Structures are given as C-alpha cells and as structure tokens.
Amino acid sequence: MKKFLKRFLIIVSSLVVLIAIIAFIGWSYIKSSFLTFEKDYAENRTIKELTIEGYTFLDRNGNDQLDDYEDDRKSSDVRVADLLSQMTMEEKIHLLKGSGMASGVGMNEPGQGIPGAVGTIVPTPRLGIPTVYLSDGPAGLRIQPTREGEDRTYYCTAFPIATLLASTWNETLVQEVGNAMGNEALEYGIDVILGPGANIHRNPLCGRNFEYYSEDPVLTGNIGAAMVNGIERNGIGTSLKHYVANNQETERNLNNVIISERALREIYLKGFEIVVKKSQPWTIMSSYNKVNGTYTSESEYLLTDVLRNDWGFEGLVMTDWFGGRNAAAQISAGNDLLEPGTKKQWDALLEAHEKGELTEETIDRSVSRILRLVLKTKKMGNLAYGNNPNLEAHAKTTRQSASEGMVLLKNNNSLPLLDTKNIALLGITSYNFIAGGTGSGDVNEAYTISLEQGLMNAGFEINETAKRVYKSHREANQETFQQAEGIDAMFNPYAPIEMAFTAEQLKEIVESSDVGILTIGRNAGEGGDRVEEDDFLLKQSEKEMISNTAKAFQAAGKKLIVVLNIGGVIETASWKDIPDAILLAWQGGQEGGNSVADILSGKVNPSGKLPMTFPMNLDDHASNANFPQEGGHLSYTDLISGLLFGKEDRPEAEKVQNRDYTKYDEGIYVGYRHFDQANLEVSYPFGYGLSYTDFEFSEVEVSVEDNMITAVVRVQNTGQVAGKEVVQVYTEKLKSTIDRPIQELKAFAKTGLLEPGAFEHLTLKIPVSELRYWDGKSGDWALEKGAYRVRIGTSSRDIRQMAEIVL
Length: 807
Ligand code: BGC
Known about the structure:
Helices cover 32% and strands 18% of the residues. The protein is α/β, with parallel strands linked by helices.
C-alpha cells in the first residue's frame, strides 16, 4: 500500500512539474511572440530642443543639427524622404508591424504607455520618432479606466452606437459627436481611433451590425464621412474599418466571401468609397475575411487598384488585429502596417526581404505612408496631453445625439406622455439599460443612465409595485444578471432571464400607475452572430409579457408603450399591433435613459429614420439563404489557439458553407433593394420614422446642369409642435434594359428645427455619375441613357413627390 502511495505521489508530482514547465514555456512563448518582443526599440523620450538661426526645433537624432525631417516648416514629402534616407533597413522593417498586445491587455509597466490602447506604431529611437497609439472604437474611445498606483480615473464617453447615429440622418450632428470623440483621444494621448465601421448590414443576424451604419451605402458613406471629419478635426486619425465585406462574425478569420464585382462595387465598397472621397481618413483597416479567395489584407486588387488607383486614397492601410496570414504578401499588396504585430511577422518580413521577395521599393512605399501619418500626429509636436476631456460637455452631446437617432415606430395618440405622473416600468431592461454592444466596440464609461433614472430625472414617478417585482426577480436570478465588461463580454454574452407578472401583480401595477413602459433588450457584439430563435424573434416570455401587460393596461383605459433597447433588427410584425406605441431607442450610450425620457416626455420630438428595413420575417432577406444561422460565440480557447497556431483552412472537401465560405448570391439585392424588387411587404421600411408633428413637401424642382442633378424641396411643418424632417431622394431608371434596383437612395438632407407653420427649402445634389451601375462585362461604371424618375420621400415606401429627368 505504502509503495503504491509513493508511486502515486511521484506520478502526481511529476505531472505537476510537467504542467508547470509546459505553462512556463507556453507563457514565455506568448510573451516573447505577442506581448514584449521589441528589444532595443524603447522610445527615446529625452529629446532636446535646439535653436538654430532663430528656429526652435526638437533635435530628434541628437546630432546638434537641423535635419529636414525635424523641420516642420518643410513639406511632408521632404521630411519623409529625409527620414527614409536616414533609416536602416532593419528600422524600416521594424516599423511595418506594431509592438504587440501588452498594453491592450493591461500589461503596461506602471507609468508606461497608455493602458488599454490596443496597438501602436512603433518608435524609432535612434531618430527620435515617437510611439503612436491606436485604440478603439466606433462608439467612443476605449482605454482602461483605471491605472495601477493611481487614484484618478480615465473614463471615456460612451456615445450612441453607429446604427443609432445613422438613424439621425444628420451629418452635422454626427460630426459633432466625432469631434467630441476625437477630443477624448487627443486628451488621453491616443493618436488614431479605430473606427468608424462602414460595413453594410447584409443580414440582421451579423453580431457587429451595431458598429455599422446601414443596409445602404449612400447613408453609410455620408454618415461615415461626417464621423471621420469630426474626429480628424482634432488632429487625430481614424481607421475606417473593416475593408471589406466583413458581414459575419462566424469564422471571420477564415471566411471566404464569394461575390460578384458588381455587388462589391455598388454595395459593399461604395460606402467606403464615399468616405474616402469625402474625408480621406488617415487610415483604413483591412478586414479578417477573404474576398473571392484572397485575404483582403493580401489583395492588391482591393488595396491598391481600387482603394488607391481608383479612389485616390492617400493614407495607410493596417490589418485588423492578427488578420491575414502572409506578412510579406500583405505589405506587397499595399497593407502597410500589421497590427498589433507579432514577433513571427517581424521575422517573416526580415526573411522575405533577405530572400528578395520583399523589395526595398515596396518596403519604402509602406514606410513612407506610415511616416507621413506619424508626422501628422500631435506626438511629433511633443504635445503634453492634458488627460482631462470635458466629459460633462460630451455627456450633453451624447444625450442630444441619442435622442435624435431614436425612431418612433408607432404612436396611437400615446406619446408624448402628457398628464402622466406614475410610470410602471416593465421588463428587466427598463432598469438595466444597455448602453452599447460588446467587444472592441464597447467603451469604458463612468456610468449608464437607465430608463428608470432617466424618467426620474425628467420628473416622473416610478411605480413601486412594478419595481418590487423586478427586484425580487433579479435577486432570484442573480447569476444571469452578471454582465461581463469589455473584451470579456465577447466570450460571456449577457443573457439575463426575463421577468413575468402574476395576474394579481399586474392588477396592482395597473391600478397604481398611469402608463406602462415595457422595454425589450438585446445585446450582441464582436465574436458571434445572432440567431433567429429567442433573439431576432421575441422570446416566449417577452411575447407573453407584451400581450398580458397590454391587455391589462388597455382594459383599464391606459396605454402600454414598448421601448426597444436593441443593437440590431428584431421581428416586430407579429406583435406590433398590440402596444399603443413603440419607440426604437437603439443603444444610446451612457446617457441612453435620459435620451429616451427626452422623447417620451416630449422635450425632444423624434426625428430618427430607419437606416435599414424591419422585415416581416428574417427569411425575407435574400441574404438569409446564405448566412450562418447557428450563432455561437468565440471562446477564449478558440482565440488563444488561433493566435498560437493560426487557423488553417480546412481541406476543400471538408469546407462548410456559410462558415468557410459564404456566397453572396443575392448580389446587389441587399435590404430595400431586394424588398422592393421582390415586392415584399415589410414591417417597417427603410427610411421610416414618425414624428409628433406633420410635414408637407412641396415646390419640388429638379434640374440637371453640368452633370449635376439638383433637387430643391420645400418642407413645411404643418403640425402642432416643432420638429425636424428628413428628405430622402431615390432615383429610378425608367425602362431600364439591365437588371437594377427599382430605386436607390442617392441623397438625403435634414431640416433644422422647424416651428409649427415654418418651412425650409432643402437643396440636394447628386452627381450624374452616381447614377451609373457597375458593368461586369466592361469592368467599369456605365451610365444608362434615357429617362430617370427622381423620387422624393420621407421613407423608401412613402414617396411624396416625383419628377422626371432625361440623361
Ligand atoms: C476588431 C477591430 C478592432 C481590433 C482592435 C479586432 O478584433 O475586429 O474592429 O479595432 O480588434 O481592438
């Protein structure tokens, strides 16, 4: 027995030692490959100021002379050329990849770097070139809010999700939001914000749709450009992402998108094209997926032919984090910077150069684009950032922008809430409002205003009985209410159990309140797609709650209002007749509850319009036949094994449709383009949204001159309260000889706040070239001659005025 025990103990202790050794080797490997592998490249922070012939500059290389690159009176061409001539090949190659993930995963030494920044452009210490910091993302800056050894905090503002911002159809307002985001980056020392996202909502189930604007490229492009211009006004860069056709999270690192060039050009690239042409973002982020067999980050066609040669993009392209496979192929294709950078990539680039596969000319091309960006940053000016953004002012910006993007879907004389004192809040989300989506698009905000708080701030009373039911439900199901933060949320989706009311509780609630507000919540994000059951479709518990509570309130002559606190489209057709009003609140950032209260109370008149269609059924989307339906989230093990071993393509015979590859068989028929063409009924059409007032469109004049179509529309507020209205201009080719959508959005504009009776003339311009289609045969854009109808509407299915033009 003793012998056996001894042997057993020896085996166990050997195993423990073995595991410890493996763990140690594993950790050392992760550390040296992904976290800290920069060796002699620590930033040189002791740069002297010199004055020569009356000009004061930073003597970056310490040679006591004024070099061209140190002279910021010189053009960037001259400065970059000088730097290139002074850099060694090793320094150049070093610059092509970031410094790894240490700061992104909170591993900075105290006082070093910017905790939470997910990437860098590395420094060149010998020449005094500083580190440039990159961080997410589309709904506001994401850095770590606390730092080791410091009492103070570094919170950022959680602005509304991108989809909500697109629902404002208001470029000026989106610029203001961008301006505030950019200011936070400036204040916290971040040089480039990794956003906005310009991918198209191809299907409602894409988990990251909340980070993207719309199913339509013209809305996407114009709102995206406004965001880029707003952020970059601060001298901060943006990274327009994820270029391109990154429309699903399922197997995003392997997925091969099989798509026609026409669909690419007219739908998926178009939004990016508009942003590039209207705002020249500093950078673009290539996506994880492949397009027609080639990783986007290795595609010369996408990165050089289309982006640079066709559109004139002047900035740099970076990969998505750990995206793509072959470092040398990426640089050769025009993907200048590999983020966050690994030791393996560094070695691969050196080796490719040594073998002559990566020429000096190609390396110089990417290095100059990177240097051009570095020269533009505030870091070059040695700016000591203040770490002190005006969070209070930004809270006002986010509150106002969120209320402007909320869409009133239904209103049976129920809103605004006049003569209302006591509100019964139903549904767990009313108390636990969702500010935004999960993953890298999440923000570390200081607080989130719930709907409950927002209504109290607006002077309403919250019904105690309903709240009591919520509280005891929450206590009984505590574990399901645990909400993971930041990146953790990617792996642990938030899925609390919905509440239910007994008949008796409901009776008491209805008797003691004036109105019921029921919130439906959904939370999705990076690393997983949504599913139809219990997500796109309401859960059984939600359906029952809507019908039971509506019945109870309506039987007592009171109203039931549904608020949708969601990040993507859900099914509405089967239940929308039940409540008295429906407000699509989206996810409005940290002030979300206040913004909803502003609309419910009538302080703000809703003017948001849908940036996508709400279909009758998920299946009505043409893309649904070719979209993964299984959902499923990335796990930590997937992530780590993917990083360590890379994800290998499965053998051809084992490839699974919608995972390894996805066929975009619907071509250009995405969103309303498909619903119109197939003559399908929809629940709420693209462009739709109600107001508390009415508008009339008149005096429409459409003219064509110098290849520019100009539409002038008079919009008058004919109702009782002040409000804003969106004018949408669609074009239709009459008697077209090719297969093309019935109508396509070409321009939009929003009025200012119009008082009752007031009017405004809006002028909308469309270059004739924007009416072209992509001709697959000639591989170019082509204009069909003949008659076009210009359709002016307040939604894609509410066309108020039409005019004809002949081209
Ligand atoms: C996301 C990017 C993000 C990057 C850095 C990636 O996983 O796809 O959108 O910018 O991480 O956080």
